[in-house]
Amino acid sequence: MVAAAPLANLEGMRLGSVVESVNVAVLRTGAWTGRMGRSGIDKRPVAGPVRVNRHGVVGDTICDTGAHGGPYRAAYACAVEDMIWWSTEVGRQLRPGCFGENLTTSGLDIHDALVGERWAIGTAVFEVTYPRLPCRVFAGFWDVKDLVRRFTERGRPGSYLRVLGEGELRAGDPVTVIHRPEHDVTLGETFAALTTEPDLLPRLDVVLPQLPPEVRVKVRRRAGLVR
User: Fold this and answer.
1) Which domain holds residue 16?
2) Pick from 8, 41, 141, 195: most CB atoms within 10 A?
3) How far apart are CA 52 and CA 48, in angstroms?
4) 209 assigned to some structural domain
5) Per-residue confidence of the chain (227 residues) as pLDDT tens digits?
6) Is 59:24 a contact under the CB 8 Å cutoff?
């Protein structure tokens, strides 16, 4: 695992960005899994090439398909730098996959990625769509009661991804930013608008096509874009 390092905002500084691990679910049950009675949030690194299609990472398991999965949330990426920060915060060593992420990255400032930004990894192409919103299952998995509040205050949620080009990827593959939209709406700003700073919601109008349909409706209503 890499050491923590300052994150850069400039695309040109992302040349060292790589996938540290590719993770798929180990099915878990328990009271903390909530109404579903089971969860795929506990993801573990896998060796060798892994296939991705428009539904997500082949071999992964998604139990709550209302909140996860689907074309706009086919995969989920988190930064190892944030994992290192949280390891200190909660007082124990966290491992790749502990956020429920399929892709653990290093050297990539996911927080400042633009909504609609595209990444080439291995032979697959992904599009940044939507920040992950924390839930009680996440807090139960970590056994940290106030994790939802702390995760929201931290404001570095990682990104859901849409698969634009099916292919294969593996740990060690570089992450190459191949497209950046002309707008300046970042993933971090989107998360803030949806959680702690609703005054930012009108800013999301330009990125609505990249958001899941149900989120578009919510943003329009909350921002007063439609009646």
Assistant:
1) 11-182
2) 41
3) 13
4) no
5) 223 333 333 333 334 799 999 999 999 999 999 888 899 999 999 998 999 999 999 999 888 777 777 899 999 999 999 999 999 999 999 999 999 999 999 999 999 999 999 999 999 999 999 999 999 999 999 999 999 999 999 999 999 999 999 999 999 999 999 999 999 999 999 999 999 999 999 999 999 999 999 999 999 998 876 54
6) yes
Ramachandran bin of 163, using left for φ above 0, alpha for ψ from -120 to 50, beta for the remaining angles: beta
Residue 108 lies in a domain: yes
Exposed, middle or buried by CB within 10 Å (0-12, 13-18, 19+), for 124? buried
| Residue 210 DSSP code | G
- The answer to whether position 216 is within a domain reads no
CB contact at 8 A, 185 and 164:
no
Contacts 24+ apart (CB under 8 A), 50-58: 50/22, 50/24, 50/168, 50/169, 50/170, 51/166, 51/167, 51/168, 52/124, 52/163, 52/166, 52/167, 52/168, 52/169, 53/163, 53/166, 54/163, 54/166, 55/163, 56/102, 56/163, 57/22, 57/24, 57/102
Give the number of other Cβ atoms within 10 Å of residue 221's Cβ: 12
Judge whether 194 lies within some domain.
Answer: no
Length of the chain measured in residues: 227
DSSP3 helix / strand / coil % (the chain, rounded to 5) = 35, 25, 40
Q: Report the C-alpha dihedral over residues 97, 101, 107, 110, rounded to 10 degrees.
A: -150
- pTM given for the model: 0.89
Number of domains in the chain: 1
